[in-house]
Design brief:
Elements: H1 2-17, E1 21-28, H2 39-52, E2 56-63, H3 65-72, E3 78-83, H4 87-92, E4 93-104, E5 107-111, H5 112-115, E6 121-122, H6 124-129, E7 134-137, H7 146-151, E8 156-159, H8 164-173, E9 179-182, H9 184-190, H10 193-196, E10 199-204, E11 210-218, H11 221-234, H12 237-250, H13 253-263
Helix pairs in contact: 2-12, 8-9, 12-13
């Protein structure tokens, strides 16, 4: 009997050694329904998960922002993309070296009557000092603005829970707050054209022109291995085209061109192609 067991183990151990590690890729549930999920996001993520499938058993799930961040903070083997870097998150997650995507920065939105006397570029710190009220999402980071927003909590209405993105702009229309900080595409998506026409927006001085999202994985051995593979993939000529296609599908050509010019600095010269 012992001999049979030893023979069985001799055959099984090599297969166990080469068994693929399971990792869950979490898609960001940005829009409210399955039909509204971004096709560009899905195709882009699929290009990377397919490339990783030779080494990992990859499963994809869609979840909301709060659950996604919570799962990335655990010891489960989970990853996602387009995650904003913050000092706190860099302690919790492992981030890719290159951005998974770049996108136009958030803007300040308010009713036209509220913003009519403000310049085209505004400072959030000055607006807060002038007693303007804001609504913010607890499920996201405002990066350069996080510390100053924390200083003026008495002027902030925090939005928590499902459908938080859709509720943000509607607080403006109901005159619950003076302003919000959001992406133009998000505001347009969750409002009717008539509602959107009631609003105006301004650039934010404290922000750079573009924001960057990154691949992020939980701080596990498998998470570290996935990020190592992703870093290699993003430097390869193989993934340049999916990155380019994703940005041109997501933005106007002139914006995508500016983004890809910035991306060029991340590539090795021999792997970059226009």
């Amino acid at each position: 009997m012992k001999i049979l067991q030893l023979i069985y183990l001799a055959f099984m151990l090599p297969s166990l050694a080469y068994a693929k590690q399971a990792v869950t890729f979490l898609s960001y549930e940005y829009f409210l329904t399955e039909e509204e999920k971004s096709i560009a996001d899905e195709r882009y993520l699929a290009a990377f998960t397919q490339a990783l499938s030779h080494k990992f058993k990859v499963e994809q799930y869609t979840t909301n922002a709060a659950r996604m961040l919570k799962q990335l903070s655990t010891q489960t083997n989970a990853c996602s993309f387009n995650i904003l870097k913050t000092t706190q998150r860099e302690k919790q997650f492992i981030f890719s070296a290159m951005p998974s995507s770049m996108f136009l920065q958030r803007r300040v939105f308010g009713l036209k009557e509220t913003l009519k006397d403000l310049p085209e570029q505004v400072s959030i710190s000055k607006l807060l000092a002038n007693k303007y009220t804001f609504a913010t999402l607890t499920s996201t980071s405002y990066q350069e603005l996080d510390s100053m927003l924390a200083m003026y909590q008495h002027q902030i209405v925090p939005i928590i829970g499902a459908g938080d993105f859709s509720r943000l702009a509607k607080l403006l229309l109901h005159k619950r707050v003076d302003m919000i900080i959001d992406y133009d595409m998000s505001v347009k998506h969750f409002l009717t054209p008539q509602q959107y026409a009631e609003l105006d927006s301004r650039e934010i001085i404290e922000y750079p022109e573009f924001n960057s999202g990154y691949f992020a994985c939980s701080r596990t051995q498998v998470g570290a291995e996935v990020i190592e593979q992703i870093d290699a993939l993003m430097q390869s000529a193989k993934m340049h085209q999916p990155i380019k296609q994703y940005h041109y599908a997501s933005f106007q050509p002139e914006v995508a061109t500016r983004i890809m010019t910035i991306y060029k600095t991340y590539y090795k010269p021999e792997t970059y192609n226009d």
